[in-house]
Amino acid sequence: MEELYEQNAKIVFHFLCSICHDENLAEELTQETFLQAFQSLERYDGSCKISTWLCQIAKHLYYQYLRKHNREFPIEIEEQMQAKVDTERQVLSKLELMDVLKEMQKLPDKMREVMYLRISGDLSFKEIGEIMGKSENWARVNFYRGKEKLLERKGKNG
Fold it and tell me: Which residues, other chains included, contact 38 with Cβ-Cβ below 8 Å and sequence gap of 6+?
């Protein structure tokens, strides 16, 4: 239990500071968060990181504090957190796409063309086969082999 506190107390504290802008209150709520977490540890199902679960507890405790002291809820907190998560996902997706496109440049010409038509053009294998003057099965096999080569290279590069 002590290890859980040592690994996550700073995260929870900084999270609370970011939403309440009061270090004393954040410290108090951090302590309360870990007390509640220890009392309900059996309810942690492992579906998210432990720090995420702890921050959810902290957020609910902060909301309880606001209710108890007749203060308004900062509704923009949820929106800000979601916007940050969405932005991070978009950046990661673009970086991953760039990596895939760079690796696709190393594929043989026909295979690369099949991959581009399937991914960028959103064409069916039948349509790709017609464009390339080959069969639907040929397009499907080339796409599969290209995908396997990309996955293989990704595995080698970490």
Answer: 1
Look at residues 13, 64, 48, 63 and name the one whose alpha carbon lies nearest to residue 34: 13
| Buried/exposed 109-136: b ≥16 CB within 10 Å, e otherwise | eebebbbbbbbeeebebeebbeeeeeee
Instruction: Label residues 91-104 b or e (16+ Cβ within 10 Å = b).
Output: eeeeeeeeeeeebb
CA 43-89-112 angle, to 5 degrees, is: 125
* CA quadruple 18, 44, 41, 3: dihedral sign: negative
Positive or negative: CA dihedral 91, 147, 122, 120: positive
DSSP state for residue 155 in the 8-state scheme: H
- Cα(26)–Cα(16) distance, integer angstroms: 5
d(CA 96, CA 117): 19
* 101-131 residue pLDDT tens: 788 888 899 998 998 888 877 889 999 999 8
